[in-house]
Amino acid sequence: MELFDWARAVFALIATLGLLLGVAYGARRLGMLQANGQAPKRMRITESLMLDPRRRMVIVRCDEREHLILLGPGGDIVVGEQAAKQEEPKPEPQP
């Protein structure tokens, strides 16, 4: 009877994994999971600098604006804001 119990446990594991894969596949087909590169991102961290173990300065770019933010345990403070500079295209390496 012990072999029957092991076989039932293995079958249950395979069935569970199959159901999970089926649900994930269905969610992707229905558009519930966002694929990489579908929508352009509006916000990103341009640069970050650790001031001390608890505080950090971060430059966040959002909608052609750059915001300088001080992050710390006491709260977050927007230090400054300015129009973002145009990014220079990166040169391609020569073979």
Automatic annotation (TrEMBL):
Pfam families: FliO (PF04347). GO terms for cellular component: bacterial-type flagellum basal body; plasma membrane. InterPro entries: Flagellar_biosynth_FliO, FliO/MopB. Its main location: other. Keywords: Bacterial flagellum, Cell membrane, Cell projection, Cilium, Flagellum, Membrane, Transmembrane, Transmembrane helix. It comes from the Bacteria. It is found in: Bacterial flagellum basal body; Cell membrane. Transmembrane segments: none annotated. One of its GO terms (biological process) is bacterial-type flagellum organization. Belongs to the FliO/MopB family. PANTHER family: FLAGELLAR PROTEIN FLIO (PTHR38766). This is Flagellar biosynthetic protein FliO. The lineage of its organism: Bacteria, Pseudomonadati, Pseudomonadota, Alphaproteobacteria, Caulobacterales.
